Amino acid sequence: MERFPLDLTALAADIKSWGHELGFQQVGITDTDLSAYRDKVRAWLERGRHGTMGYMARHLDERLDPAALEPGTCRVISARLDYLPDGAEPLRILEDPRRGYVSRYATGRDYHKVVRRRLARLARRIDEAARTHGGHRAFTDSAPVLEKALAEKAGLGWIGKHTLVLNRHAGSWFFLGEVYTTLPLPVDEPATEDLCGSCRACMTVCPTDAIVGPRELDARRCISYLTIEHRGSIPEDLRPLMGNRVFGCDDCQLFCPWNRYASISREGDFTPRHDLDQAELLTLFEWSEAEFLTYTEGSAIRRASYQQWQRNLAVALGNGPPDAAVIDALRRRRQDASPLLREHVDWALERLGAAG
To answer: In this structure, are 59 and 127 located in the same domain?
Structure first.
């Protein structure tokens, strides 16, 4: 190991302290060896379980080797930021077919902006402390990074049966971010204990049976994938199972016993905006594209297009009660709808007994 005129142990402790000052609940450090995850990732891709997310396969070498993405990287700093907002009770919204369920991570400000800004500040502080030694680059779900594996190796938690990272003191309602560094910092002990045990709650409650085995997710059946990543037609057999979930799905987290330890986030940025934690489906469906762009400005919902948003809402309305106002709104939207949206509107009208 190269000898540095730095106390790397002290620097590692400082990095964690600075991370806490920036609002992160936990910071860990790991090496870049992801060989234990390589075969599973490749098998998942070979089975086509990533669906249309071609980017998952395009940069596989960089995803499996941090140094291939950022030359010289020998350590990864992994950080956790809790996000569970203080909004409407999720199960109450899921049980109300007239309201739209938006995944809790997307009801406030886009986490990419929040986490990336803080990680960039952490990287700058490391630069200042390390002076001319080392290079540092921050990531937040913005590059081919195997972030859950790195978080597990850095001791932030273990990968649960729902494929999310679980922390015994905080559950799974948190974002992850990373700083790649060329500094050979001391590493933390990885999370080697699987505390899911025989529990299968996440697998049992998944509305579309997307968790096909422990830590085995078929994205093609996952409501989060279908409502956000998938650009085309939603398979007809899955539409009734989506209920009123219009952007993402949290069921596997809502029913996970470990989330009894999750804390409400104190981050104002994650406070729900525009009633997105409990808005009525009809109100959302009647937004014009201009209103959609206004109400979702600075939101992760922008990952979906207006057409996808309308498609998702049409399915949710079709899964609700046959209200005259809903049927009228669907018929009006159908008049100038794209072929994709018209297909889902027609399906909804048929479900509501108003076809033709």
So the answer is: yes
